[in-house]
Amino acid sequence: MFSPMKTYHQLVDFASKYKNIVVALGMFDGLHIGHQKIIRTAAEQANRIHGTTFVFSFTNHPRAIVDSLGAPRRISSEQVSRRILRNLGVDVLVEIPFTPAFADTSPEEFIHLLYRYFSPQYVVVGENYTFGRKGVGTPQLLRGIGRRYTIETIVCASVLYDNVPISSTRIRTYIEQGDITHVNELLGYPFTMIGTVIHGQARGRLLGFPTANIALFEFYEILPNGVYAVTVLYHNHIYSAVANIGNNPTFGSCDRRMEVHIMDFDGDLYGKKILVSFHKRIRSERRFDSVDELISQIKSDKECAERALQETFHLQEKISMVI
Ligand SMILES: Cc1cc2nc3c(=O)[nH]c(=O)nc-3n(C[C@H](O)[C@H](O)[C@H](O)COP(=O)(O)O)c2cc1C
Ligand SMILES: Nc1ncnc2c1ncn2[C@@H]1O[C@H](COP(=O)(O)OP(=O)(O)O)[C@@H](O)[C@H]1O
């Protein structure tokens, strides 16, 4: 069993509260395989010196401040990220707002700040990590200046997939395309959303397929409308399920949402939190001319989802990273 991860939203004198600090630095949106390598390296190093594993990151994406195009939509929700960080062995998460003043910090000032609040034995970064005003700080600079403060820098090489480094940007593109297979390969765990079940039009049960509905939020990168093979974690049990993301065009239209029909389940889920993990895209959402056509399509979607879940079964053990 893991001890709970402590979270701070401001910088305090961590050095006097925790011993032998090792800090992983980065934005870590999505916590993909490359991020996991950096954080695992930090945790291993901390274990070796009987110390404390820290992740130091930001509540908002730095690009919200420094990029005229604004911040990209997030890959993972806060809840999903925290579960993964805890499972990777992080003891303390420090997440502070990235403000215009912070963006103006010079690389030297940033390293001084690390020393002042963390006095880390080690910092761990990815090879393409940048920091400080206009992102001019590099891992080499961190290593050079860090030594003056007796901070050792560990630089992790990018993890490649098809000979190209795995990046959050690449994963966002696959999500936009609904390419779950690639999304999950690069994340190293199934793309997952956690949400609370809300009321819909109470129509699903009449169609013979009740669907637990979950509102979608604009600031997360989400999959395109369509039908997906998913699993649902509820009350410590993983169920096979089939999800539809969209506006139900067969019935006019509704707010965009995700709805999940859970197989071999009967119960009241309103107001309950469920965790939905995506495994394969099945088809696009479309308008049907009759309700009977929609019903027979949902029947075949369900069979298709069952088959897809059998095919991807070997990958599903990675769900443990998000639980
Ligand atoms: C597997 C699955 C596939 C679906 N595909 C479509 C679709 O292609 N077009 C559509 O209009 N609605 C589709 N729906 C949504 C149904 O219209 C919706 O579940 C139903 O209207 C119930 O809505 P309610 O939850 O508000 O009661 C699908 C639902 C499921 C479970
Ligand atoms: N197998 C199931 N899958 C999903 N929801 C189920 C299932 N069995 C019962 N339910 C319940 O039924 C509700 C969905 O029924 P539905 O008629 O689609 O209503 P709504 O339009 O409010 O979502 C869920 O929120 C849940 O409480």
Textual characterization of the structure:
This protein has 11 helices and 14 strands. Helix 8 packs antiparallel against helix 9. The two termini are about 10 Å apart. It is about 30% helix and about 25% strand. With about 325 residues, the chain is of the alpha/beta class. The chain has a 6-stranded parallel beta sheet, with helices on both faces. Strands 9-10-13-12-11-14 form a 6-stranded antiparallel β-barrel. The protein has a two-stranded antiparallel sheet with strand order 7-8. It has 2 domains: about 5-165, Rossmann fold, CATH 3.40.50; about 190-315, Beta Barrel (Elongation Factor Tu (Ef-tu), domain 3), CATH 2.40.30.
SSE blueprint:
Layout: E1 6-8, H1 14-17, E2 21-25, H2 33-48, E3 52-58, H3 63-66, H4 78-87, E4 92-96, H5 100-103, H6 107-118, E5 122-126, H7 139-148, E6 152-156, E7 160-161, E8 164-165, H8 168-176, H9 180-187, E9 192-198, H10 204-207, E10 212-215, E11 226-234, E12 237-246, E13 257-262, E14 273-283, H11 291-311
Parallel strand pairs: 1-4, 2-3, 2-5, 3-4, 5-6
Antiparallel strand pairs: 7-8, 9-10, 9-14, 10-13, 11-12, 11-14, 12-13
The structure holds flavin mononucleotide and adenosine-5'-diphosphate.
Catalytic activity: riboflavin + ATP = FMN + ADP + H(+); FMN + ATP + H(+) = FAD + diphosphate
Protein name: Riboflavin biosynthesis protein
GO biological process, one term: riboflavin biosynthetic process
